[in-house]
Structure prediction request, 712 residues.
Amino acid sequence: MTFAPKTATLQQLRTDLENKPLFRISSTYVKTLPRDKSDTLLLLGACAMVLLPHFLHLPWWTSLICGGLMLWRAWITLRGQRLPPLWLLMPLAALTMGAVYLDYRTWFGRDAGVAMLALLLTFKLLEMRARRDLFVVLLLSFFLLLTNFFYSQSILCLLWMMATLTLLLTAQLSFQYTGSVPPLKQRLRLGGLMLAMALPLTLILFLLFPRIQGPLWGLPGDAHGGRTGLSDSMAPGNISQLAMSDDIAFRVKFTDAPPPPAKRYWRGAVLHDFDGRTWTQGQIGRASIETSGQWQQISLNAPRNPDAEVHQQITMEPNGQRWLFALETPQRVPSLEGIGVLLTADHQLRAARAIGERVRYDVVSNLSPLPAYQADARALQLERALPPGFNPRTREFATNLRRQWSDDTALVNAVLAFFRRENFSYTLEPPLLGKDSVDDFLFSSRAGFCEHYASSFVVLMRAAGIPARVVTGYQGGEINPVDGMMTVRQSDAHAWAEAWLPPRGWVRVDPTAAVAPSRIETQLGNLMPRSFFGDLLGAAPGRENWWPALNSSVALLRANWEALGNGWNQWVLNYTPAGQMGFMHWLGFDELDWRTLSILMLTIGTVAVASVTLPLLLARNKRKPLDAVYSSLCAQMARRGLDRQAHEGPSTYSRRLCASNSPLAPPVKIAVQRFIALYEALQYGAESGSGPHNKPPAHLMAQLKLLLSQCR
Prediction:
């Protein structure tokens, strides 16, 4: 007899498992959780959404510890176990803080600070014993959510943060309720409503709050960490690693028609020194910067050719380097707000500091060959220098070429013919090279990427006595059909050569074009799968696809998404002080200083807040007509010394009013009884849901008011 109920329970559970889907049983179990457990699990879900984006850049061990602590807290909640004691949590927290220091060598800065906050949040979840601890967890979550802007300010990041913020507000509301709690859907709706009510004020602050110069979401020291892009040196494999990256390097808006693909050479760093394996800017590069003047807007005294000029507006992503990109060859120095820029003697655009934020600038380039300038003999001699003891076969090959071709231009053409004639191949996965890397490439492997061809060509030129140097940048770019902007990606990173050929001067020579012309005519990204559904569908332009219609749809979706992202960058992230002043001028406010702007912001902000809060306050104080009539009866009785007690409902209050010892007259008692009976029928009975918008019928309300007058 004792075990019969348990047997029946097991039998019922077996029947449920056989007849009901598992998710229905799980849903039923979640709904029957005690309130403290369900609220805690909701808070854990919100904290998980806060931490999830940070797992993309936190060290693996930090993400592992945070995930493990979250699962531990969820297990404790579901099992109803006691929280771990402080003597266990404190040493664990100290060990993780020490690990953060060993990993970052500091406790300060962006990355180390975010890692510490993430760990502290998860440890605090295991130490949440009082209401105060709950608010500490919520405040930590809000602050940690804000640090996402240190790493990304994209539209997807904003949408994720708004969803997370809604869930955090819902969790905060859930802990505030006393008594019955509304369903989760209703609480989520209320949390979303609170967020929506803050949006008008947020928009006003964004548009009118006085802007400051420079990026807001950055920290000195490590604000440029994790940037991808070209570096200030080149070794075999450097650029080929970027070829696999689909990240955007910069976007370009042309005033006129864009140049053809073969002329889309975006000049970056010029490398002069070679140590046998790595190319760097070296002594000549530093000298060209020092002799170009101070950090101010200066231009080379080159003759203009208006027919060959191309005007570009470039929006460059942060890369942590100091140079700016432009089509060859930039003619005038662009203007960057708050950053000095110069145009060096070797046609580099250099900024006074590393570019750690998105910048936009206008630049003019000349696509026609520039006339020769008076070159410094010492500089040309340095452009012929090679490290001793490297690449003997290349030196011998260059000597033989010089015997055959005394003219420099003819020798350059002979080397290009050698690349075309021999069995050279263009690949992203070349074999490893030894100490004499150029010898191994030219005479053994003959397989490489653009840096292999540019480096070997310049070494051959120098060995033959011709001044030459390496130029790194990007080659290519695709037009977005949605907004007409040209997108240049990291996969378009390229290296080419320049040779000094009098009387023409410095002439661009791209040996990669001799081996793989398709790399120049069709950008490398079009020959490779894209990361945006590309690995799944093979949806790359120019490639055969198992479903061409789907390929076209994915390409169009990608173009629209990138156009949307570009608009977000231009109008939101690039809302600078100059942009704010332009917006104010468009509104009709001229010559605004920060004081006037602040007064305007406070005035409009006050109006916006009042327009949101006043209707809520009025609606809060507005009572239903039925409640107002009942309150009038209670007020009448209170004036006769018969106040309604807090615990008394209508029936209990009516019995006390109509009791034999009540001072009310018999006709008034009869009126009170009829009033309370009709009120209860309208408020709680079948009549409570009648009428439009659940309002009582007009004739019954009139009868109720008549009874109220008789109660007087």
